[in-house]
Amino acid sequence: MIVRLTDSYSDLLDMVWLVVSNDEGVAKSIRDEAKAIVVGKVNEDFALLEEAFVKCSKGKAFFGGDDVGYLDIALGCYLGWVKVAEIISDVKLLDESRTPGLAGWAERFLSHDAVKDIIPEAPELLESMEKTRAARAAAANTAAD
Q: What this chain does, per the record (predicted)?
């Protein structure tokens, strides 16, 4: 399952970069098809995480029980990027109808006193990503000259 989680993270980042790509040489239909494939993979992986959450939490609020634990922190650190992917792709990835336990866990985790002021908000991450993208584009243009 660790490999699947790594794949999920990679798929999520692929989706983020795919959706924000301004490469006009890439046909919209190809981007839409690729986006659908990546979203499908992410949904499959989130279904596995939903199953893991149900088994690990045993009906409690977090993976480890009543309070935030190691696994919650390890997975929760990616929630900001999940929200960014949802914003830029206009696709709800943590969907209460498909993964109710995981969606509820995400909300509880992000609002927990131990992490709510630490995990960056999606707009902050999106701004950082856009600055990085602009810097890379500028560097590529400079290198091309």
A: Is involved in the conjugation of reduced glutathione to a wide number of exogenous and endogenous hydrophobic electrophiles.
